[in-house]
């Protein structure tokens, strides 16, 4: 494991206001202090409702923190995404922090190969080189070549998840947030995904993951971070 700190939260808090229920305030995260170094894979633990998904979305900036800091190592400096202006937040997502969710959300009618290559092209990579890298990942994930020119809207859940994994890994982000990477996959394809995530970690990526698959948990985790059960999450 590298000594370089990639993620650090200090006193992170997040709550939701339920406007349809008399503006009841629902606290979800409070006082979260998390540190993740390059080359680590930290699995988030805790009972259902503890706030694991909320923490991931807050780290990515999809949810705005109520309090605290979310420091990410970006081009050598620690940057607080919780306070970052929109343009910097977009740059952090483009270059530094990737989010691999359970579900594929893409523009309809765009071919799979283009969908996977797009994050790398957004970094200025040559289009052909980006497509070659995308194709190599799709091959590693055993997605048949006959599907590469098709939009993934009609793919099976497992095929869409593999497209999502490839898209999330193609740009080589130094920080990765990964939500249930093997949930829709059989054992063989799950092992392929685990292997790619292990390679990303070995190459220095800092990974924070939610994973309930026992075999994947054992293979991926270098450390666990348990959210307290007193939190009640949306």
Range of strand content: 25-35%
Bulk shape: globular
Order of helices and strands: EEEHEEHEHHHEHEHE
Distance between the termini: 33 Å
Report the major sheet: 5 strands, parallel
Classify the helix fraction into a percent range: 25-40%
Explain what the structure shows.
This protein has 234 residues and is an alpha/beta fold. A five-stranded parallel beta sheet has the order 6-7-8-3-9, with helices on both faces. β1 and β2 form a beta hairpin. α3 packs across α4 and α3 runs parallel beside α5. The protein is globular, with a radius of gyration of 18 Å. It starts with a strand and ends in an 8-residue tail after the last strand. The mean pLDDT is 93.
Give the topology, please:
Blueprint: E1 5-18, E2 24-37, E3 41-45, H1 52-60, E4 67-74, E5 77-80, H2 86-95, E6 97-100, H3 112-121, H4 127-140, H5 157-169, E7 175-179, H6 187-202, E8 206-210, H7 214-220, E9 223-226
Parallel strand pairs: 3-8, 3-9, 6-7, 7-8
Antiparallel strand pairs: 1-2, 1-4, 4-5
Helix pairs in contact: 3-4, 3-5
Gist of the model:
The chain is an alpha/beta fold and 234 residues long. It is 34% helix and 27% strand. It starts with a strand and ends in an 8-residue tail after the last strand.
